[in-house]
């Protein structure tokens, strides 16, 4: 893959092509909104063509032996790693992730391809003891069928591999729509899948603008041939997908919004807690669904923790994503910057104090930068208590006792991730049980792994990605009963 070549077409039935309408939309540099490329602005007809191709490919792909499917995935994995620098450069260019961090995302994305390649030959059923003589009973697992994959802009490599790799491992075929803000990384990954020899029609990817996305996705929702949807994004969109897919009873994996608490108890290792918060909160400039949105610190250690955190945050370098020493790049667009600043202003108006940051940063390559921020003494009535800020803002709340902070942590409709730091073993198990989330980081801020189940509860969705459970989400169970054997 050439560093100067940008793949900017749809991929349907093994052919790189324009949209049926010939319309395109712009992909913009997040730092300055300059045009990077034009990609197809697909509509319902393109979505339908992608399903046609996936249905045709499914007839044969589902019967390809699991080890052969694994070999295709391993070839794709090797190509991703071989093109790590180029892919990381694309992420930095279109999403604004600092280059060093973007390289980490490519390695992370590749890990899912490798993990599911290794899991494909391990799809196993069960023999069931028959209650009568002369009968054999068993349960087998089969691919659900054509799967629609809809990915977010904040992890354009990891999110598409975390969905496509298990689908292919299970024997499903895919129609995919990358986020309109960051389609180029996804298209480049699919190009490498083509080079890896994955047969035509097994992966199909179509781009669309924000205006055309509803019509395109609704085509998949209404098409009974699409048997599963895997979506990462906002809770309102996830609810729409669940409602609209009910008519054809599709299988759904929904990884939706979060409002993660990060709790620091007085018996915690404060230096470890600060390091864990830095890793969890400021990765990708705070633009992650599992980053802490509310930081609760027990009163006895509040001032000490705040001072240590401010020192670390003040040292973060804000700069162009292309520079290796940058730690905070631009936000995804001006709308994101406006939302972050409005959350800071609202918190200050309700009594919070800016301990560091709190302002827009002027960088030579564009205006969409926010200084990493710590807010002290934040009110529970602040907007950022109930809405994801999705930016580099750490709001601190003071609490007195364990029961109080459990109630505050769970006082949200969301339930994706939670974190807490404590050296008390009894408390660790009480908190792990009491927190209403699908993921809990215990004395750890970096929680993602290819072998771990990723997903939420409550209005953060259902289904799991990664791990053996993530593979099960692309399979259904068929019961076989053979009689008259005696």
Explain the overall architecture.
- This protein has 486 residues and is an alpha/beta fold.
- It has helices at 44-61, 66-82, 84-95, 99-119, 158-170, 183-195, 213-222, 235-244, 270-281, 302-314, 334-349, 402-410, 425-434, 467-472, and strands at residues 10-12, 15-17, 24-28, 35-40, 126-128, 136-143, 146-150, 174-177, 203-205, 226-232, 251-255, 260-264, 292-298, 353-356, 360-363, 366-370, 373-376, 393-399, 414-415, 417-421, 439-442, 457-458, 461-462, 475-482.
- It folds into two domains: 10-256 and 460-480, Aldehyde Dehydrogenase, Chain A, domain 1 (3-Layer(aba) Sandwich), CATH 3.40.605; 260-442, 3-Layer(aba) Sandwich (Aldehyde Dehydrogenase, Chain A, domain 2).
- The protein has 14 helices and 24 strands.
- The protein is globular and about 75 Å long.
- The protein starts with 9 loop residues before the first strand and ends with a strand.
- The mean pLDDT is 97.
Q: Helical residue percent?
A: 25-40%
The number of helical elements comes to: 14
Rg, Cα atoms, Å: 23 Å
Q: Average pLDDT value?
A: 97
Strand percent estimate:
15-25%
In CATH terms, what is the fold-level topology of the largest domain?
Answer: Aldehyde Dehydrogenase, Chain A, domain 1
CATH class of the largest domain: Alpha Beta
Instruction: Kindly state the number of beta strands.
Output: 24
Q: Major sheet: size, sense and barrel closure?
A: 7 strands, mixed
Which residues sit in consecutive blocks of at least 5 with pLDDT less than 50?
none
First-to-last CA distance: 61 Å
Widest sheet, order of strands: 14-17-18-13-12-20-21
Family: Belongs to the aldehyde dehydrogenase family.
Domain Aldehyde dehydrogenase: 16-479
Pfam families: Aldedh
InterPro entries: Ald_DH/histidinol_DH (IPR016161), Ald_DH_C (IPR016163), Ald_DH_CS_CYS (IPR016160), Ald_DH_CS_GLU (IPR029510), Ald_DH_N (IPR016162), Aldehyde_DH_dom (IPR015590), Aldehyde_DH_Superfamily (IPR050740)
